[in-house]
Design brief:
Layout lengths: L16 H18 L4 H16 L5 H14 L24 H16 L12 H26 L9 H12 L29 H20 L8 E4 L6 H6 L11 E4 L2 E4 L20 E12 L5 E9 L2 E11 L7 E7 L4 E7 L8 H5 L11 E11 L8 H4 L6 E6 L5 E6 L4 H17 L5 H16 L4 H13 L2 H4 L10 H12 L6 H8 L6 H13 L3 H12 L20 H20 L12 E4 L1 H6 L11 E4 L13 H6 L8 H13 L23 H9 L2 H16 L12 E6 L2 E7 L4 E2 L5 E2 L2 H10 L1 H17 L8 H13 L4 H10 L1 H4 L2
Antiparallel strand pairs: 1-9, 2-3, 3-9, 4-7, 4-9, 5-6, 5-8, 10-11, 12-13, 14-15, 16-17
Helix pairs in contact: 1-2, 3-5, 4-5, 7-13, 11-12, 11-13, 12-13, 15-16, 17-28, 18-19, 22-24, 23-24, 26-27
Length: about 850
């Protein structure tokens, strides 16, 4: 017989089920009973109630044992009379409530790890603890599995902003990013693919409709205009910009360039001298353009850096390309870059580290009309594009596959195209939408679905609208519809189309291609051998770099690398050339490990990385030539190796002026170990570095750790943070702290990167700490596998997933954690192939 515990007692997950669920089911019963007119419906409801009861029903003997354990060992610290976050007297016991379920999972994990009861408290016997955990674990698993049966493990979810961007590009065959008006994803601390953290507000819908309009305009209507291809050469020496500044001092905008017979020499940033719009080059259509610059160094016996900067119509700037210009460069400097209407670009000289940081006094030297310093001699600038563009473009011809496009010349001789329907407008529209819907919805469609969208345009068609005008409303509706925005998955095993979607959005961040659609159509994609082959094919495709960028951007927070800008007076070495290089190092590093199927232990410590000349200099590595990235072996005495010592992560975890062992330490705990530290109590202030340089952050933290409530967490947080103190806010290795006092830059207090782990193991610096991390690689790489699964499926690892996750991790360990093998194992798993 089962019993009900008193309200003031610890209501376990194992009390009288009827009373526990009564309040939950009353409202449900009222709603359901109103519509129950058939015996089968009543029977289904009774089955529903019975299933609910079974999720929390446990014999009374289990109740007594569990209650005794919690009362004896937990209540002293976790009841109404204490101030801890957990109060057993108020903790809900309905495991169908997600908040209650998560609380009990945390309790289970604390018990399993031996963290509770604390070491200085009375401990239950092994048999009592084992029985309690077995009882709790059984109930958690039962509820979780029943939830899977009814709704699946993955919550309803939509395309993320990144996925929407790439899907629109692949669906419409366009290159532009149309997501500017869509709000950024909510920062939930996890992946934006997780449906639990996603929102879809009115603002989102407005942004989505605006994006749909922009995509349709680019894909269809601009493709009917004249070809935008153009070939252009700057007239450098006859620029009105130069004529205005000739002979003037630095104060008046002169003195930073010099005319010579066959070109122009620039000595510093030339943004106002050579912008493309000032030379009458305007981008007519978005696409890839080739920019060719003939240049060499001037008054320099070493290579110098030339960069090309793009400025959009609303200001701002991004680097299109960068390269070394040699002393006697014979090959022109060429880049291929994506430009949009309204963009303007200009070439400029990127000063070396030792030329920066001198302030206005140094810049004033450029005011000398006979300046003897280094410069870049530019002889010519050519631009052509869009490249590889048949006209009309694929975005137009594929959308209008069965429609004739008739060329017509205007008064200037320019060729434009008009749409010539092959039949009634409504029938032609239905044909276009039938094909478009199937690709947009990423599954077979029913004819009534097509006709519903055709009906949206019927009033316009009846009033004589053209096919071109009639298309806009239904396509806009399709691109804003749930069928396009949401993932179509049902509980249980994914069908071939849902599997194609999950695989493609995992590895390409976008819709399936035709090969995946064809395999889904024939029902063969879910065959193990075929699925493995598709994973290899997709990882070899350039679109896999989308996965690399998005996954690393969220897992390692690299998408926040530009959240702060280093103090240019204090860290003059940092500029956009270096910033671009930092991200590429991490991305190429991960891509190489994945493509070569190397061990994920390289994430912790590796013998190689990727650098160019600028980054090799930044890392104090043997010099390399050129600004292209290449793999290099690291010297044995280098502190580099693995993700943690890459400058992208070191910058992301700093604030631009100083570093914090607390921030960096918690980053390591959260993103590598998967054990984030809890938030500090409200009464405890934050730990700030002494920007005056009088005290080190270690000394400040030592005082902080004397507080008992702080010490528990800081003994875990601080050690990895201390190990990383050898790196400054822009990722340079340092032995002293660099500080700014007034206009003076000083190297002050000595950096101490030693520490002691919670297990009492000492380390002298980052190299020894990474060896300790290698000892923990099963934990760290197990967390990496967990993160991959969460990113790829759109759901956190849940209690019922733990056994299969453990099996995946065990197989990975047996195979030395080879990254491509891990990807295969995840895709083949039940977790990935079921909702």
């Amino acid at each position: 017989m089962e019993r009900l515990l008193s309200a003031n007692s610890l209501l376990q997950l194992i009390g009288n089920p009827f009373l526990i669920i009564l309040s939950v089911t009353r409202a449900t019963a009222r709603v359901r009973m109103k519509s129950m007119t058939k015996a089968s419906e009543i029977m289904r409801f009774l089955i529903f109630v019975n299933a609910t009861l079974m999720t929390i029903a446990v014999p009374a003997s289990g109740t007594e044992k569990s209650l005794s354990m919690y009362r004896q060992y937990c209540w002293n610290c976790h009841s109404e009379s204490t101030e801890t976050a957990l109060n057993f007297e108020e903790l809900g016991t309905d495991l169908n409530n997600p908040a209650n379920f998560e609380s009990w999972v945390k309790i289970f994990d604390k018990l399993k790890r031996g963290e509770m009861p604390p070491a200085n408290a009375d401990q239950p016997s092994d048999s009592v603890l084992s029985g309690t955990m077995k009882n709790l674990g059984r109930n958690l698993l039962s509820v979780n599995l029943k939830r899977y049966q009814s709704s699946g493990r993955v919550p309803a979810r939509r395309l993320t902003k990144t996925e929407y961007r790439y899907t629109i590009q692949d669906l419409m065959y366009i290159d532009i990013d149309v997501t500017a008006n869509i709000p950024d994803e909510t920062d939930s601390g996890g992946f934006d693919t997780n449906g639990k953290s996603q929102r879809l507000s009115a603002v989102h819908m407005q942004g989505l409709m605006s994006s749909a309009d922009e995509a349709l305009e680019e894909a269809l209507f601009r493709g009917l205009e004249e070809s935008p291809y153009q070939k252009f050469k700057y007239d450098i020496l006859n620029s009105p910009r130069l004529a205005y500044h000739d002979g003037k001092t630095f104060i008046d905008g002169g003195g930073i360039y010099r005319r010579i017979d066959d070109g122009l020499v620039i000595f510093t940033d030339a943004d106002f001298l050579l912008p493309s719009h000032a030379h009458h080059f305007d981008v007519k259509r978005a696409g890839r353009y080739k920019i060719t610059i003939e240049a060499s160094t001037f008054q320099s016996d070493v290579p110098l850096i030339l960069k090309v900067i793009n400025k959009g119509p609303n200001g701002g700037g991004r680097m299109l390309g960068v390269g070394d210009i040699g002393v006697d460069r014979k090959e022109p400097f060429t880049i291929t870059a994506f430009l949009e209407p309204g963009d303007s670009f200009y070439p400029t000289y990127a000063m070396e580290d030792n030329q920066q940081g001198g302030g206005i006094d140094f810049l004033m030297k450029y005011g000398d009309l006979d300046y003897q310093g280094k410069g870049i001699h530019i002889r010519s600038i050519h631009v052509e594009g869009p490249l590889d563009l048949n006209w009309p473009p694929p975005s137009t011809t594929r959308l209008l596959a069965d429609v004739e496009l008739k060329p017509q010349k205007d008064d200037r001789g320019a060729v434009r195209y008009t749409i010539q329907p092959n039949g009634p407008v409504k029938e032609q529209l239905a044909s276009i939408l039938r094909s478009f819907c199937e690709r947009a919805f990423r599954r077979p469609i029913q004819e009534e679905e097509v006709q519903a969208f055709v009906a949206l345009a019927s009033p316009m068609i009846e009033q004589g609208a053209s096919l071109r005008d009639a298309m806009r409303v239904p396509i806009r509706a399709i691109l804003s519809s749930p069928q396009f925005l949401m993932f179509d998955e049902n509980p249980g095993k994914l069908d071939n189309y849902a599997l194609a979607n999950r695989l493609s959005f995992f590895l390409w961040r976008s819709m399936p291609d035709q090969e995946l659609f064809d395999l889904a159509d024939t029902g063969r994609l879910d065959r193990d051998g075929i699925l493995r082959g598709q994973v290899d094919r997709m990882l070899a495709d350039p679109k896999a770099m989308r996965f690399v960028k998005d996954f690393l951007g969220q897992w390692l927070m690299l998408n926040k690398i530009n959240a702060n800008t280093p103090d240019q007076r204090l860290y003059w070495e940092y500029d956009e050339v270096l910033a671009d290089t930092l991200l590429r190092e991490s991305q190429l590093f991960y891509q190489h490990i994945m493509s070569e199927n190397l061990s994920a232990s390289n994430f912790i410590e590796s013998e190689f990385t990727f650098v160019n000349r600028r980054l090799a200099q930044h890392y104090q590595l043997p010099p390399v030539q050129g600004q292209y990235m290449r793999k290099v072996q690291l010297p044995g005495d280098s502190p580099r190796g693995g993700f943690l010592t890459q400058a992208a992560i070191l910058k992301t975890t700093a604030n631009g002026t100083s570093t914090s062992p607390v921030v960096r330490g918690n980053f390591v705990l959260t993103n590598f170990y998967g054990t984030p530290a809890p938030s500090p109590p409200p009464s405890v202030g934050s730990v700030e570095p002494d920007i005056r340089g009088k005290s080190t952050i270690r000394e400040i933290l030592a005082a902080h750790r004397d507080v008992l409530t702080c010490n528990t967490c800081h003994k875990k947080i601080d050690p990895p943070g201390f190990a990383l103190e050898s790196f400054d806010p822009i990722g340079q290795f340092r032995e002293r702290y660099r500080i700014k006092i007034g206009n003076e830059i000083r190297q002050e207090l000595v950096v101490d990167a030693s520490g002691e782990t919670p297990r009492g193991i000492s380390f002298s610096g980052i190299k020894e700490f990474k060896q300790l991390m290698m000892d923990d690689k099963d934990i760290i790489l197990g967390n990496y596998i967990r993160k991959l699964i969460e990113f790829g499926t759109g759901s956190e690892i849940q209690f019922a997933d733990r056994e299969e996750l453990a099996q995946i991790v065990a197989r990975a360990k047996f195979n030395d954690y080879r990254v491509r093998d891990i990807m295969h194992d995840i895709v083949m798993s039940k977790i990935f192939r079921e909702k």
